[in-house]
Specification:
- The complex is a heterodimer of chains A (203) and B (90).
- Chain A contains two helices and twelve strands; from the N terminus they run ββββαββαββββββ.
- Chain A has 203 residues and is mainly β.
- Chain A has a single domain, classed as Sulfite Oxidase, Chain A, domain 2 (Alpha-Beta Complex).
- In chain A, the strands form two sheets. In chain A, strands 1, 2, 5, 6, 9, 10 and 11 form a seven-stranded mixed sheet that branches. A five-stranded mixed sheet of chain A has the order 4-3-12-7-8.
- In chain A, a hairpin with a 5-residue loop joins β3 and β4.
- The longest helix of chain A is centred in the N-terminal third of the chain and has 6 residues.
- The N terminus of chain A is likely disordered.
- The termini of chain B are far apart.
- Chain B is globular and about 35 Å long.
- The chains are: A mainly beta (203), B mainly beta (90).
- The interface between A and B is medium-sized, with 21 and 22 residues.
- Bound molecules: zinc ion.
- The site of zinc ion has 8 residues of chain B, from loops.
Chain lengths: 203, 90
């Protein structure tokens, strides 16, 4: 476990055998971890990797990989739900809470865009990435997050469809106005709540 | 190299659902770098969430297609191409 490690939120594990009430409408369970790619897998060396917080902030913040990994991480176990209908229960991640990254930031922004290596973006209301709802995850099931699953770091927003949990995330841009991201601009729902089956525009 | 990368011919099926012209031999020009070539010679990323044709020169997303899984509705984004040149095969 890394420096500053602490954990909270072990909900899920002990209920793993009684999963039916944890599967949103239209979803089915998988044991594996499917990989969906809309582009090549970036392989940014950690020495060149940074995480940036910019947009509607007084001072943009940037962390190197070392600085990022020195921030306190949390272990979280969550169910994840892909818009292509697979769900996976009880996945365990370690990451830096977005609350930690935003600590002390004064902003009037109501939206945030996650931006990534390779040009992928996803948009979310700011309130959906704060108050313990989102992380920048660097570890999956105790191992460094593999590149095909978004390593070195991905956004983790488990209460929304998993395309919102952007792989290869490199920063968050705080914005006053909502701006649909890569899939949100191509028919996929702007918000993406799996429990309301918000897959496509108009759902 | 990316293990999930396909060539543009992998998009023939979904593009044929939308266009009446043969699309793998349609020529594109990339908005980002200007490179021209046939769709079939570009790179393709195909998954259940959508199909993305990317420029073989600069990786820009040329064509994006999403299809509602229960059918009937498609979304097509051509912002990545300056034009498509379509040939009638008589
Ligand atoms: Zn190009």
């Amino acid at each position: 476990m890394g420096r500053g490690f602490f954990s909270r939120g072990f909900r899920g594990r002990r209920r793993e055998s009684e999963g039916d009430d944890r599967i949103p409408p239209g979803q089915y369970l998988v044991d594996g971890f499917p990989v969906l790619s809309a582009g090549p897998t970036p392989r940014t060396p950690l020495a060149e990797w940074t995480f940036t917080l910019d947009g509607e902030v007084d001072e943009p913040r940037t962390w190197s990989w070392e600085e990022f990994r020195a921030l306190p991480s949390e272990e979280v176990t969550r169910d994840i739900h892909c818009v292509t209908k697979w769900s996976k229960l009880g996945t365990t991640w370690e990451g830096v809470s977005v609350d930690t990254l935003l600590d002390g930031v004064d902003t009037a922004a109501e939206y945030v865009v996650g931006f990534c290596d390779g040009g992928y973006t996803t948009n979310l209301p700011l309130e959906d990435v704060t108050d313990g709802k989102a992380w920048i995850a660097h570890t999956y099931e105790g191992e460094p997050l593999p590149p095909e699953h978004g390593g070195p770091a991905r956004l983790l927003v488990p209460h929304l469809y998993f395309w919102k949990s952007a792989k290869w995330v490199r920063g968050l841009r705080l914005a006053a106005a909502d701006e649909p991201g890569f899939w949100e601009s191509l028919g996929y729902h702007n918000y993406g709540d799996p429990w309301r089956e918000q897959r496509y525009w108009g759902d | 190299m990316d293990e999930r990368r396909l060539d543009g011919n992998a998009t023939a099926g979904v593009l044929a659902e939308i266009f009446t012209f043969e699309m793998t031999t349609a020529r594109t020009a990339c908005v980002h770098c200007g490179a021209t070539g046939e769709v079939g010679a570009q790179m393709a990323y195909v998954s259940e969430i959508g199909t993305v044709v990317r420029c073989a020169s600069c990786n820009n997303a040329l064509i994006r297609v999403a299809r509602q899984d229960d059918g009937g509705r498609y979304w097509l984004d051509l912002r990545g191409v300056k034009y498509l040149q379509l040939e009638e095969h008589l």
